[in-house]
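Q: Given only this backbone (466 positions), what sequence would you predict?
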């Protein structure tokens, strides 16, 4: 998130008019700011990968058209991140009437109370400034969400203060009216009870508030965004047809289509406690994509990008654990750490009902396929013949969760006798001890998967040999 600038110092509506301030409708504000960034060659969508030629153009056209938007897609496709990014197109600071319940613009009060104050105070009507972060709100749709939460209800405390029950000032406004001149996002919209969805119809189209028989005509200026899983997967509920019709744009999201985008998402989102070399992120990305293409996995639920992110965090934690136990100063994840990812992440996948009992076997097979594909991609063309022959002659290479990078490298055959390792280090941009150990482990695992060498794993130690 960008650093905030200082808020303007204007404090009354008279000063605001004297400064030449112009009030803009919300959709015009978003449209103008989006066009300004596009003309300046700036990226309005920082941190989003893989949507450049598909989802982003549709979102931009929807915003330029002033449409409310619903994003449809499986879990972990970045829907919420995309919706939050739209808030970055708001003006950084906007003036509001101080103390107004709906954060109304000083030039355009819409509630009875604010209009009365504007008439009484004139140019002395106090103004405060609201940052764009405060103009974006989210609500996770849950079955217990009420009409009062989203739209509003009669406030018994205001009635107890002496106001008549028919007084519009007795109403306590809900989330959507309170988002006036801002953006409100409803995540997992189908989980919202249908009767609550019905309550949103007038707010989105007619812009009036209906609460317990009262109808308030309020020219609300709200952009409504929503996310949902496709209806063919979500059995918990649905978006009612009239509400779907209120959204001007229905946009399908997707998982990254390019491997590079998948890796970029993982690198950006993972909170790593140790170094994770790029080739391990590529393995995790390929692993995730293999799962999405596997007939053994229930594809209706999807394989979230969080799978690869959690995998990267897990192998980084494994490297940190090893460093603490054996006394390494610079922990770097290696291929041996991938086993922990399989053990931890299996529960994040929904398998086909016919694959019960084979989950670990499927995960292991698809991970090995990802490793083999990564080896072919990164170290193809390097002659590993001398290393294979050395192992055939009886050399063994030990690694594992208790083997330091230094000990692993010291145990390599042909060290100092061949340029083989230097080629691997250069190809994988490995400079530190940990990075070099990780690079050689990748090559060894590739030779094992190609059945050029053997591997034995027992008691936390892995030995590559005949």
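A: Predicted residues:
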């Amino acid at each position: 998130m960008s650093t905030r600038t200082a808020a303007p110092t204007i404090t009354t509506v008279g000063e605001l008019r004297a400064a030449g301030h112009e009030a803009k409708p919300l959709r015009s504000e978003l449209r103008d700011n989006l066009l300004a960034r596009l003309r300046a060659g700036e990226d309005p969508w920082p941190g989003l990968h893989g949507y450049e030629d598909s989802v982003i153009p549709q979102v931009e056209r929807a915003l330029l058209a002033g449409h409310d938007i619903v994003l449809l897609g499986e879990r972990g496709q970045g829907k919420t991140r995309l919706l939050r990014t739209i808030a970055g197109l708001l003006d950084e600071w906007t003036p509001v009437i101080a103390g107004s319940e709906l954060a109304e613009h000083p030039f355009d009060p819409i509630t009875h109370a604010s209009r009365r104050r504007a008439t009484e105070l004139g140019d002395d009507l106090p103004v405060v400034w609201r940052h764009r972060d405060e103009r974006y709100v989210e609500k996770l749709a849950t079955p217990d969400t009420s009409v009062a939460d989203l739209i509003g209800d009669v406030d018994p405390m205001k009635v107890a203060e002496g106001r008549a029950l028919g007084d519009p000032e007795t109403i306590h406004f809900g989330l959507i009216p309170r988002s006036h001149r801002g953006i409100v996002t409803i995540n997992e919209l189908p989980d919202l009870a249908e009767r609550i969805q019905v309550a949103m119809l007038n707010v989105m189209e007619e812009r009036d508030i209906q609460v317990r028989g009262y109808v308030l005509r309020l020219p609300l200026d709200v952009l409504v965004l929503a996310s949902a899983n496709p209806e063919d997967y979500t059995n918990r509920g649905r978006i009612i047809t009239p509400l779907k019709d209120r959204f001007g744009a229905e946009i399908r999201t997707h998982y990254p289509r390019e491997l590079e985008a998948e890796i970029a998402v993982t690198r950006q989102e993972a909170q790593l406690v140790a170094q994770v070399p790029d080739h391990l992120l590529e393995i995790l990305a390929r692993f995730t994509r293999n799962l999405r293409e596997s007939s053994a996995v229930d594809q209706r639920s999807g394989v979230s990008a969080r799978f690869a992110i959690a995998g990267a965090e897990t192998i980084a934690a494994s490297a940190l654990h090893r460093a603490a136990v054996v006394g390494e100063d610079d922990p770097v994840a290696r291929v041996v750490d991938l086993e922990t990812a399989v053990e931890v992440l299996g529960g994040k996948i929904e398998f086909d009902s016919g694959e019960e009992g084979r989950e670990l076997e499927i995960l292991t097979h698809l991970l090995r396929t990802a490793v083999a594909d990564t080896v072919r991609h990164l170290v193809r063309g390097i002659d590993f013949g001398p290393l294979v022959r050395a192992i055939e002659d009886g050399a063994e290479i030990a690694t594992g969760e208790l083997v330091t990078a230094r000990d692993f490298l010291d145990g390599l055959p042909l060290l100092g006798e061949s340029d083989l390792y230097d080629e691997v280090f250069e190809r994988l941009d490995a400079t530190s001890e940990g990075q070099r150990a990780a690079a050689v482990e990748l090559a060894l695992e590739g030779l094992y998967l190609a059945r050029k060498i053997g591997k034995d794993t027992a008691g936390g130690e892995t030995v590559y040999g005949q």
